[in-house]
Design a protein that fits this description.
This protein is mainly β and 50 residues long. Helix content is 0%, strand content 12%.
């Protein structure tokens, strides 16, 4: 599979309640990010940093 070319950076302005910075871990054929249990059922936004 060919790697995607590096895209230019975009600026996002996001308003919210809390922020957590984590590393995505491998999970089968995809990735997974574990979040606190009190976030279950809440809306989140994921932004890839690199």
């Amino acid at each position: 599979m060919a790697r995607r070319q590096r895209a230019t950076l975009s600026k996002f302005e996001v308003y919210g309640q809390e922020m957590i910075e984590k590393e995505v871990k491998a999970a089968g054929n995809s990735g997974r990010v574990y979040l606190p249990p009190d976030w279950v059922g809440r809306k989140v936004k994921i932004i890839r940093m690199d």
